[in-house]
Amino acid sequence: GAGVSQSPRYKVAKRGQDVALRCDPISGHVSLFWYQQALGQGPEFLTYFQNEAQLDKSGLPSDRFFAERPEGSVSTLKIQRTQQEDSAVYLCASRARPYSVKPQHFGDGTRLSIL
Amino acid sequence: AQSVSQHNHHVILSEAASLELGCNYSYGGTVNLFWYVQYPGQHLQLLLKYFSGDPLVKGIKGFEAEFIKSKFSFNLRKPSVQWSDTAEYFCAVNAEYGNKLVFGAGTILRVKS
Questions:
Q1: Given CB atoms, is B4 within the 8 Å cutoff of chain A?
Q2: Is there a contact between A111 and A89 (Cβ–Cβ < 8 Å)?
């Protein structure tokens, strides 16, 4: 597709449920990023993939957060046993190549609300 | 660790007024700097970026930013704003060719027509 696609756009879950958020990056983009944006804040880095390899997961807030990109294209961010503080917009971004001047392109995000 | 500070969280201007949004970062090494814009209901879009060379960079829609290394600043400017510039603006930094972006908290700009 022309841009980064994320689904669902909105997700409501009860506390304790598991959720899965999907990201379709721009075709051929090697780098994929996940960010978390809390209300009134800027996006905060969660994790980074280069192809299928997860090279940086330093931003994942707890072991309840897990991300994968098994075939180097689509990525899934999974949150287990959700808590209210997980409520945020989750942004996915892709970039053509790592370590380059190419910018990151962002999707519309998934707005997650935990009740 | 890198951090970014945006000076104003809310700015209200009348059409044709001049705009300057402040951004300061903390990082001792070579940096890449970005301004992203998020229009209501849309995704983050790149407004402009600085990697090297001329510290005055021009972006889309008449925006420009000046990198002042000695002040660790990358302020965004536009001489005359339009109602359509109403949006949230984010300054971001990463280490040279690094991967993750560090964002400021954002500035919400409202332009009154």
A1: yes
A2: yes
